[in-house]
Design a protein that fits this description.
Length: 124
């Protein structure tokens, strides 16, 4: 089954895509940038860089670190971070629905046998 991937270019230097959104979702789930990064196979440094890049794009924080206490610190999504995740997922769902018929038609072309035979190197 084919799939689509959505990226939203918000300024010339920054974009929001499925990776940053998944990271924000993991931060919300685990309450920690380090744990979110580990769950996605990335270092704390890389996870924090992605959060900082997203903060820069929006000009305000999407996630903030919380001061440590007895069990250490953590992180939470800001209201903007929660809105960003919800809106991205809504845009993603709307795009997938709008493209569903066309994507299915492309898949039918992939699945359809070629009456002439396999492509030769001359066709490439």
């Amino acid at each position: 089954m084919p799939s689509m991937s959505l990226r939203i270019y918000l300024d010339p230097e920054g974009r929001i895509g499925p990776g940053k959104i998944a990271l924000l979702e993991k931060i919300g789930e685990f309450g920690s940038i380090a744990a979110a990064g580990r769950a996605m196979g990335m270092s704390y440094r890389r996870a924090w860089e992605l959060v900082e890049e997203t903060n820069r794009i929006f000009g305000k924080p999407v996630a903030i670190r919380q001061a440590g206490g007895r069990h250490g610190g953590g992180a939470v999504l800001t209201p903007l971070g929660l809105t960003l995740v919800a809106r991205f997922r809504a845009i993603e769902a709307a795009a997938a629905e709008a493209a569903r018929e066309h994507v299915a038609a492309l898949q039918q072309e992939v699945d359809k046998p070629d009456p002439v035979g396999p492509p030769s190197s001359a066709h490439l």
